[in-house]
Amino acid sequence: MKIWNSHIIMDKNIKWKDLEPVWGEMLRMFFEETRQFRDDPEQIDIIVEENMVDIKNNRKPEGYNREGRMRIIVPISDKREFFIYRGVYSDEVRTVTEKVSKFLAENGIKHKVEWNDMLLYHMKKRRR
Description:
The chain is an alpha+beta fold and 128 residues long. The protein has helices spanning 20-33, 41-56, 91-106, 119-127; strands at 5-10, 63-64, 71-73, 81-85, 111-115. The chain has one domain (5-127).
């Protein structure tokens, strides 16, 4: 199966604040795995800090939805969920998602992973 995005959905009992011990480290791992900002680690620090301010206040974080190789998109919803997205089909999405999922599981964050269920994916598929 070609992977365009993954959808990580946390258990309904998890609050954003519950992710405080893992969110920053997960973002850093994401940037390392996707080889983004290697020449500008200060940029990673800024993105992580912006996200952690929201997490600490039990608010939905920004994720990373800027121009880049891959993104972490936190949709507007009441659920604790996020997408790992790349604009093209890629095995890299699967690899990064599996590492993020393993990291979350090792840190006691119950979740499930779904593939290619982002609304944008369905719209793109219909156009073909």
